[in-house]
Design a protein that fits this description.
The chain is mostly helical. The protein has one domain. Helix content is 82%, strand content 0%. The chain is built from 7 helices and no strands. Helix 5 runs antiparallel to helix 6.
Amino acid sequence: MTAADASSAPPFNAMLSRLYFIRFAFALVWAVALFPSSKHTGGPLSVLLVIYPLVDAAAVLWQLRAQGRTPGSGAAERINVVVSVLVAIALGWASSVSIADALAVWGVWAAASGITQLVTAVLRRSSGGQVPQILSGGISTLAGVSFLLQASKSPHDMSAVGGYAILGGIFFLISGLRLRSLVQRAAA
């Protein structure tokens, strides 16, 4: 990315950097809250599992409405929002039935959102800081398949989902730091 490319997108990159830092902090707090309730259906587990995709949908909506965003249709992002809301509903139901059902729903969502994250990051790569998001999308897709396989073995806890959230948060942190660096260089 050249300095001219970076200077054409600083407001969006600055906003995206802040959003990524927020998503990192949320993932850590959420995972810490999940671990104690990861073995019990209903109650706190259900609330936590519903909140995560809703926060994801809100963050993607924020990106879609951001001023100065990279031109494009945003179709993958819009699909991600719809899927995340539907998943929140499905997780609310599944987490009250069994850990295996909740893990299966989470797996489908992780794989689907990983694919959309990967597509969005590839399309946005010219704005910089997207390599960690590309890696995260690929890992999310693979993790989703892994969660589906785990769900078929009657698991007794969802703690792996907390680790998944932390890893995703780390990728958001790396992207946020990279974008902040690009914005600072463009402003210099």
